[in-house]
Amino acid sequence: MCKNILVISTSPRKNGNSELLANEFARGALESGHKVEKISLYDKEIGFCKGCLACQKTLRCVIHDDADTIAQKMRVADTIVFATPIYYYEMCGQMKTMLDRGNPLYSADYSFREVYLLAAAAEEEESTIDGAVHGLNGWLACFPKARLAGTVFGGGVSDAGEIKGHAALLKAYEMGKSV
Q: Which intervals hold domain NADPH-dependent FMN reductase-like (predicted)?
C-alpha cells in the first residue's frame, strides 16, 4: 500500500546531520514505492504559537506563515517523520515550535498513524535522544490514533556532514524502506 509520507527536517543548518538522516529515510521510502515530500525548516518563516486557540474552531492557524501550510500537510499525511539535531538533550527549538504550531490538528480529522523521529547529536550515548522522545510522545499523547513507530539516533557528530559513513544513515534508510 502506497503511503503519503511527510518528512520534516527541523535543523537550522542546510545539509546538517539530522537532515542527512531525513534524506536517507526519504530515499528508502521512495524506493519502497511511497509518496514522499520532504520539507526543511531552515528556510521557512515560522512564528510562535500565540495560544489563542482559534484554530480549534477554524482548523487553521491565525498566523499565515509557512507553519500553517506545513500543519495542513501534516494533517493529510499517513506518516510523519521528524528529523532534529539534539541541543541540550532535547529536540531543537524549530521542531518544538512546529509541534506547537500543529495545534490546529488537535481537533481535526488527521490521517497520520505513524510518526518517526530521526536525531543527530555531538554526544554519543543512546540516552541523548531521550528528552526529544519524551517531548514528541507528549505531543503524540494528544493524537490517540497515532504512535511513535521508531527512532534513529546518530551520535558523535557535530559538524555539518560529519554523519557521512555513520551506521545511523543505513538504519534511517532501512527504516524508510520498511514503512
A: 4-141
Task: Tell me which amino acid residue 72 is.
Answer: Q
Domains of the chain: residue spans and CATH = 4-178 (3.40.50.360)
Identify the helix (H) or strand (E) that includes residue 21: helix 17-31
d(CA 30, CA 40): 17
Q: What does pTM read for this prediction?
A: 0.97
In 3-state terms the chain splits into helix, strand, coil percentages (rounded to 5) of 40, 20, 35
Bridging pattern class, strands 4-9 and 79-87: parallel
Burial of 8 (0-12, 13-18, 19+ CB in 10 A): buried
Confidence of residue 56 (pLDDT cuts 50, 70, 90): very high
> Letter for the amino acid at 147?
R
DSSP state of 164: T
CB 69 within 8 A of CB 60: no
